[in-house]
């Protein structure tokens, strides 16, 4: 077996590893093994690449890899669990940038010269540049929204969609121009337009929808990588990139379905948010009822059924253990307690299941949204811990709202509602919640962990 | 069009179908880890980065080459490490071991 054949076999092994990794990642039992298998495939593919004839600048490659590992591993290791989604956005963004740069460098520094490239070769390059660049800047915006460097709510300006459409048309026009006559100038223009478009189309997406957006951008990066595979004549790049591109599209659709929304609705729905925000200011004169931990403790202790609705605030405050403690204290008093889990509560799907599992909450106490809602009318007190958007009735009642159509936990069906919240600040989607002003709602302001600890003491004393 | 490009298109089309089929059933709790895992897989661009950096001449190209390798390496290691940390949370605790794996089975069944 010659070295070249050996290399191809190694790439085939890597490609199979990637497929099995994805297969594994879609079942809870094999997920971790799947991920490690993917990593193993990656190591095989990268290692064997060094045997390619004509690779120079080994010191430069080694330097780049050492720097990358030195930054990447600590960044991924040290980041807080709550910040995971933005880390995925960041790592996706650098991947998109790398794919775009590989295409650009191949185009700019190719020894063959542009004029000798066949039209389809130019197309492969330009596709990689455009899609990789969109993914890069789009991921930066998604990251900034989740990291709260910029506001999480949709950012809109007049004629936003028409402007975006013009930019998109400009990109298509430039691609056609490059195909006819490949010049570096048009290439530069298309690069700038693509970077711009990545920003423009992500600005109106609400922060709460960011996971779906990241999944879409992840799929884009996959396609950009596949394009570089065509350019560099590498099967393993095509296979891995296309796998991510195709599965990413499907995953994006599944994630948006879990939120009860369509992908266009998520990408373009920010239209209505202007209406909502002006509507919200009108209501600012309304009063809010806030209670003490002791009052609420008594209310909880003497109810027969309590639903705990956890949200991002629970994750931030790391209050899952105290939440379980409260539930156990209530159960000792004979109160029936369950947790109502919204599929997208927190900032990644399944966030709450994971946190509560970590606190050893028995699985049978977790109710999925649908079964929780069907029982909500029998609940005496719904205790909302650091959640807002996922219980906001505007999703059902206000067609102008950006979250309209998203299924919610219908806590307003319960006889009383208690919100543990840090402030009156709206939730991540930036929309006011009418339920906070409702007569049967009582607020307990403060950090979720502190409030829950106080409630545990109050319930025990009651 | 020569047969070379056709061979790559064949690989592309087949991979697209595989990618679509292989994750047809994913419980919602695994959506984020799967997204993160596939994010790591497109870190394979590091391979392209190595080839491009390895073919560079002159300070400008080599500098850009190093930047590409850094970016792609970040994608690979960051992607796999973040995914592993997410999945660590699914690891059953010793005292709740049986409960937990049963729970996940139920969840997987419900979602499918």
User: What is the total number of structural domains of chain B?
Assistant: 1
Give the helices and strands of chain A as they follow along the chain: HHHHHHHHHHHHEHHEHEHEHEEH
What kind of sheet is the major sheet of chain A? 6 strands, parallel
Largest interface: A-B, 110 and 92 residues
Inertia-based shape of chain A:
elongated
The chain-level structural class of chain A is alpha/beta
Strand content of chain A: 5-15%
State mean pLDDT of chain B (0 to 100 scale): 81
Q: Any idea what the shape of chain B is? A: flat
| Number of continuous helical runs of chain A | 18
Number of strands of chain A: 6
Low-confidence stretches of chain B: 92-112
SSE ordering of chain B: HHHHH
The largest beta-sheet of chain A arranges its strands as 3-2-1-4-5-6
Question: What distance separates the N and C termini of chain A?
Answer: 79 Å
Largest sheet of chain B: none
Percent of residues in β-strands of chain B = under 5%
Number of strands of chain B: 0
Integer-rounded radius of gyration of chain A: 26 Å
Note down, in words, how this protein is organized.
The complex is a heterodimer of chains A (462) and B (112). Chain A has helices at 3-25, 31-49, 58-78, 84-109, 119-146, 160-180, 184-202, 210-232, 235-258, 263-268, 273-282, 293-301, 312-317, 320-332, 351-358, 369-375, 394-397, 448-461, and strands at residues 305-310, 336-341, 366-368, 381-385, 416-421, 441-445. Chain A is α/β, with parallel strands linked by helices. In chain A, strands 3-2-1-4-5-6 form a 6-stranded parallel beta sheet. In chain A, helix 17 (394-397) links the parallel strand 4 and strand 5. Chain A is elongated and about 80 Å long. Chain B is mainly alpha-helical. Helices cover 78% and strands 0% of the residues of chain B. Residues 92-112 of chain B have low confidence and may be disordered. Chains A and B meet through helix 1, helix 2, helix 3, helix 4 and helix 8 of A and helix 1, helix 2, helix 3, helix 4 and helix 5 of B.
């Amino acid at each position: 077996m010659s070295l070249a054949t050996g290399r191809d076999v190694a790439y085939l092994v890597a490609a199979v590893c990637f497929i099995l990794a994805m297969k594994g990642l879609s079942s809870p039992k094999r997920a971790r093994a799947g991920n490690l298998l993917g990593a193993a495939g990656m190591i095989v593919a990268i290692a064997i690449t060094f045997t390619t004839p004509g690779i120079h600048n080994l010191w430069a490659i080694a330097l780049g890899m050492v720097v990358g590992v030195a930054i990447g591993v600590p960044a991924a290791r040290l980041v807080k669990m709550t910040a995971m989604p933005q880390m995925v956005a960041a790592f996706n963004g650098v991947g998109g940038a790398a794919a775009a740069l590989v295409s650009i460098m191949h185009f700019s520094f190719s020894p063959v010269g542009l004029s000798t490239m066949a039209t389809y070769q130019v197309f492969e390059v330009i596709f990689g540049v455009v899609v990789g660049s969109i993914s890069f800047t789009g991921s930066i915006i998604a990251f900034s929204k989740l990291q709260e460097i910029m506001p999480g709510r949709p950012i809109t300006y007049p004629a936003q969609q028409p402007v975006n459409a013009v930019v998109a048309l400009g990109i298509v026009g430039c691609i056609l121009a490059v195909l006819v006559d490949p010049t570096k100038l048009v290439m530069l223009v298309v690069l700038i337009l693509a970077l711009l478009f990545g920003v423009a189309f992500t600005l109106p997406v609400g922060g709460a929808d960011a996971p779906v957006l990241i999944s879409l951008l992840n799929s884009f990066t996959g396609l950009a990588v596949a394009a570089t595979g065509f350019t560099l004549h590498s099967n393993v790049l095509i296979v891995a990139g296309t796998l991510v591109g195709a599965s990413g599209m499907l995953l994006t659709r599944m994630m948006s379905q879990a939120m009860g929304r369509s992908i266009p609705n998520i990408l373009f729905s920010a239209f209505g948010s202007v209406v909502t925000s002006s509507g919200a200011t009108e209501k600012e004169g309304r009063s809010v009822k806030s209670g003490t931990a002791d009052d609420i403790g008594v209310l909880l202790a003497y109810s027969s059924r309590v639903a705990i609705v956890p949200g991002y605030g629970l994750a931030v405050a790391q209050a899952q253990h105290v939440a379980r403690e409260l539930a156990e204290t209530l159960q000792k008093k004979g109160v029936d307690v369950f947790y109502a889990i919204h599929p997208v509560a927190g900032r990644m799907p399944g966030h709450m299941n994971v946190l509560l599992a970590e606190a050893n909450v028995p699985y049978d106490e977790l109710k999925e949204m649908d079964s929780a809602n069907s029982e909500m009318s029998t609940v005496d007190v719904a205790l909302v811990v650091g959640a807002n958007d996922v219980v906001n009735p505007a999703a059902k009642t206000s067609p102008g709202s950006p979250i309209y159509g998203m299924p919610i936990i219908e806590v307003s069906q319960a006889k009383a509602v208690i919100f543990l919240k840090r402030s009156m600040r709206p939730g991540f989607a930036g929309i006011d919640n009418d339920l906070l002003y409702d007569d049967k709602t009582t607020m307990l302001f403060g950090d979720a962990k502190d409030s829950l600890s106080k409630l545990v003491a109050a319930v025990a004393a009651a | 069009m020569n047969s070379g490009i056709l061979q790559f298109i064949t690989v592309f089309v087949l991979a697209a179908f595989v990618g679509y089929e292989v994750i047809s059933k994913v419980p919602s709790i695994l959506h984020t880890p799967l997204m993160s895992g596939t994010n790591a897989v497109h870190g394979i661009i590091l391979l392209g980065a190595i080839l491009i950096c390895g073919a560079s001449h002159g300070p400008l190209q080599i500098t850009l080459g190093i930047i590409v390798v850094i970016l792609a390496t970040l994608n690979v290691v960051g992607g796999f490490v973040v995914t592993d940390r997410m999945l660590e949370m699914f690891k059953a605790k010793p005292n709740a071991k049986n409960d937990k794996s049963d729970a996940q089975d139920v969840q997987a069944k419900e979602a499918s």
